[in-house]
């Protein structure tokens, strides 16, 4: 008998809106960073670090994050 597939919760997806009103959807954040008293605040820090690394490689300054929310909400 086949097993039921289990939900994979390795990552949580977030939608990001930047200061210029551009949007990036489905940004992956490791699920183990989230929860506890900080709830989703570590996701913003994680994404800001990703954006900084991308900016260093591309030579374009990173945009400031205006809002962050879980995808699908």
Question: Could you characterize what this model shows?
Answer:
The chain has one helix and three strands. The chain has 73 residues and is of the alpha+beta class. A three-stranded antiparallel sheet has the order 2-1-3, with helices on one face. The protein starts with 10 loop residues before the first strand and ends with a strand. 5% of the residues are buried.
Q: Which properties best describe this structure?
A:
73 residues, alpha+beta, three-stranded antiparallel β-sheet, 1 helix, elongated
Shape: elongated
Overall pLDDT score: 88
Largest sheet, spatial ordering of strands = 2-1-3
Discrete helix count = 1
Tell me about the biggest sheet?
A: 3 strands, antiparallel
Task: Give the beta-strand count.
Answer: 3
**What string gives the helices and strands in order?**
EEHE
Q: Structural class per helix/strand content?
A: alpha+beta
Separation, N- and C-terminal Cα atoms: 35 Å
Low-pLDDT runs of 5+ residues are none
Radius of gyration: 15 Å
Beta-sheet strand percentage? 25-35%
- Into which percent range does the helicity of residues fall? 10-25%
